[in-house]
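Hey L., structure's done. Input below.
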Amino acid sequence: MDISERKKAEEEIHKLNAELEFRVKERTAQLETANHDLESFTYSVSHDLRAPLRHMDGFSRILIEDYGSQLPPGAKQDLERVRAATLHMGHLVDDLLNLARVGRGALRIVPTDLNELVAETILSLEPETRGRQVDWRVGRLSPAECDPGLMRQVFFNLFSNALKFTRHREKAVIEIGEILDAEKRAIFIRDNGVGFDMKYADKLFQVFQRLHREEEFEGTGVGLAIVSRILQKHGGAIRAESSPQQGATFFFTVKQLLRASPAPAALLGGAA
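Output:
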């Protein structure tokens, strides 16, 4: 009787486990389908918006160039506003397409020297820093198993963010390094910009969420969402710490961050 009861209990457990596993697989398949449909919809909508935006910008420019002298000042100003709004919408479409590509694309995981990516990204941002006083304080980073193209985009978006929000500082200080964060090695990017109130931090990595008015700082509210999505695909995460007028620090992890021997930080200062 004891053996019979035990076998019956084991059969019930196996049955429940099988049923639970089936439901998990079914739910996972439904979520994957929903995500795929949403990403396809985002890509299609964004792609289809390009043509009318080009028309709006093109015809507005023709009106200004061919008939600008005949237009009243108010009408010309309105056309300039149309062109500015069209340009902003174009940037928004580009960011949506980038977000969709991150979700749809497969990762190309290879051993990567993050220090090379950082150096290349800083060099690519030279036009953004021309005429400004920018101190790049660059520490030694551990190598990582990651997609180098997507990780370069992470650095580009975070560095661009730091440059934008330090614009009104006499000298911008942007520091990148590595720390032990919650028993994981994390990369940090710190700036001395305008910062933000931490009570709004939950909105920071959501699409279309902005913590500053567009009149103060341009942007579409998609860049940090792209960064978060890329790091999630790598099995990592990102968080931020800040306070108003005290700068901001972004900490992020990559699942396969490999330990490197420590090296002294490099300092790139002066007028960039």
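The chain is about 50% helix and 15% strand. The first strand starts at residue 110 and ends at 112.

-- N.
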